[in-house]
Specification:
It is a single chain. The protein is built from 1 helix and 12 strands. It is mostly beta strands.
Length: 182
C-alpha cells in the first residue's frame, strides 16, 4: 500500500515488473548502520523499503540516510508533514543526512516494528541535485504516527552508496531492501 501511495503522490504509476531487487538484508543482531554499496547505474530511480525497530529507550525514533558518505551538513534539506492521531504538524530541517522519518523503538509494544518507503529520484543523473520522498509510520502504543518527508541532496554526483543510520542502533530482525525502478 505504501508503494501505491508513493507512486500516486509522485505522479508515476509503476507496473509490477518495473521494480528489481538489488539487495536485501535482515539483521541477525543489533546494528548501527545499514550500507548499500556498488549500486548499479542501470535504473531510473531507487527505492528502499524497510521494516525496522530502533534500540533507543523511547517509543519511536528517527532514522536517516547519507549518500556517497557525504556528511556535509549544507548538502541535505528536508520538509516534513506528520500526524499522530491527535495532532498534525509540519517542519523543515537541514543537516548531514537525508531524513527518512519515524520508526518504532525499544519501549513500543513487544515486536512492534515501524516501516518506511524511501524513493530516491534520478539517482544517477549528474546534471541535477537528487530528490527524495519518504513515507514512514509506526504504532506508538495505541497512537500511530505517520510522516511524509521530501528531501534534497545538493550534489550532482551519481549515488553509488547509501548508508542508513539512526539515533540508536537498528534492532535484531529489522529488514531492509533496495530496489531499482526502471
Amino acid at each position: 500500500m505504501l508503494n501505491n501511495i508513493a507512486a500516486i503522490i509522485g505522479g508515476v504509476t509503476p507496473e509490477v515488473g518495473d521494480y528489481e531487487s538489488i539487495a536485501t538484508t535482515t539483521l541477525g543482531s543489533s546494528t548501527a548502520t545499514i550500507s548499500f554499496s556498488s549500486i548499479p547505474s542501470t535504473y531510473k530511480h531507487l527505492q528502499i523499503r524497510a521494516t525496522t525497530r530502533m534500540t533507543a529507550s523511547a517509543i519511536a525514533d528517527t532514522c536517516w540516510a547519507q549518500f556517497n558518505s557525504d556528511t556535509t551538513s549544507s548538502n541535505y534539506y528536508a520538509h516534513g508533514l506528520y500526524g499522530t492521531g491527535s495532532s498534525v504538524g509540519a517542519y523543515a530541517d537541514s543537516g548531514a543526512y537525508a531524513q527518512i522519518g519515524i520508526v518504532s523503538a525499544n519501549t513500543a509494544g513487544a515486536n512492534i516494528f515501524g516501516v518506511f518507503v524511501m524513493d530516491i529520484l534520478d539517482y544517477k543523473d549528474t546534471n541535477k541535485f537528487k530528490t527524495t520522498r519518504t513515507l514512514s509510520g509506526t504504532d506508538t502504543n495505541g497512537d500511530g504516527q505517520l510522516r511524509f518527508v521530501s528531501g534534497l541532496w545538493r550534489n550532482t554526483n551519481a549515488i553509488t552508496s547509501i548508508d542508513i543510520k539512526g539515533n540508536s542502533n537498528f534492532a535484531q530482525y529489522s529488514s531492509f531492501a533496495l530496489y531499482g525502478i526502471k
